[in-house]
Amino acid sequence: MDDLKIGVIAAGGRGRLAKHAHKPGEGSRITAICDIDTEKLAQLKEDYGSDVRATTDYREMLEADLDAIFVCSPDFLHEEHALAALDKGVPVYLEKPMAISVESCDRILRKAREHGDRLFVGHNMRYMNIIRKMKELIDHDEIGEVKAVWCRHFISYGGDAYFRDWHADRRYSTGLLLQKGAHDIDLIHWFAGAYTKRVSAFGRLSVYDQVPRLKPGENTDTRWDKAHWPPRDLQGFHPVVDVEDQNVVNLELANGVLASYLQCHFTPDACRNYTIIGTKGRLENIGDRPDCPIFIWNRRTDTYNMVGDKVFRGEKVGNTGHGGADGLIVDNFVQFARGGDAVGSSMHDARMAVAAGCMATESLRAGGAPRDVPALPV
């Protein structure tokens, strides 16, 4: 079996996950990379080998002989890079979120249709063992028919990760309800078995509008550091900060399931907590690490039972990033590039997560006015 020849756009940031596809002699290898950071590019060329084609221009990279392409650039460049990569006529891995507007997503979908639907979107949380275990328990009728899904997302590192660069500027991210929330909205859809049709949201910039910002031309130390606390004592934020640091969203899904998503970027701890309520019980996880507990309550007690009636855990996996999910999703993309199926989010799932996030952001900036979510294009 010949190795697939793979190119990576924006190889030095999130594109580093493509290293899991670099297995010369085992079916795939990275042969071309692009990044505007020349220092990262030089280091990656050493990592991948002197014969890898390295450039700062993605157009030049796309001229190489390639069998598959990773697009891992910042969100606001996804449409441009995805359309160009799809025109190459090879399978494309597009990092989530698909894009920062519904219109951009639909243009990408149309281009993918032109080229045989060989688009794979990187919603890696569907590959996390604990998330798969929760979905398995739901599908095995442990809590009956799903009627409600709630998600609380505590983000201790929000200031470091999202307010020091382009994420903080709504022109480039739309908002963190989309950029960060696309993961969770996609999982709400997956757990409930339907897409969102209507949303109402509230959000606010509550804390991080009071943190000193960089002056034009200044650089910032973007390392995540537990010593960066409390939130108002942080330094060196992006010159433009106009995205909300907390959001509350209510979602009505097409099958009647009601859902909610709460997100806060200035909490002291980090945790994703899902509660799924069905006609025969309730399921809840504490954290999203592979071996975190999943509790199920399916007996009436009229009091709060902290340990649940049943307890499950995901399985520990290798450390390939995001609880082992990065390695798994890249392996699936390589299989997809050889003609196999994607086992995670489809490109339609990814579009609907963006659509719900965009409409929720529009709602919160309109004082909570409900918004209908545009259906998939015919």
TrEMBL record:
Lineage: Bacteria, Pseudomonadati, Planctomycetota, Phycisphaerae, Phycisphaerales
Coiled-coil regions listed: none
Stored PANTHER family: BILIVERDIN REDUCTASE A (PTHR43377), BINDING ROSSMANN FOLD OXIDOREDUCTASE, PUTATIVE (AFU_ORTHOLOGUE AFUA_4G00560)-RELATED (PTHR43377:SF2)
Designated name of the protein: Gfo/Idh/MocA family protein
Domain GFO/IDH/MocA-like oxidoreductase: 131-284
Residue ranges occupied by any Gfo/Idh/MocA-like oxidoreductase N-terminal domain in the UniProt entry: 5-123
SUPFAM superfamilies reported for this sequence: Glyceraldehyde-3-phosphate dehydrogenase-like, C-terminal domain, NAD(P)-binding Rossmann-fold domains
Entries under InterPro entries matching the protein: Gfo/Idh/MocA-like_OxRdtase_N (IPR000683), Gfo/Idh/MocA_Oxidoreductases (IPR051450), GFO_IDH_MocA-like_dom (IPR055170), NAD(P)-bd_dom_sf (IPR036291)
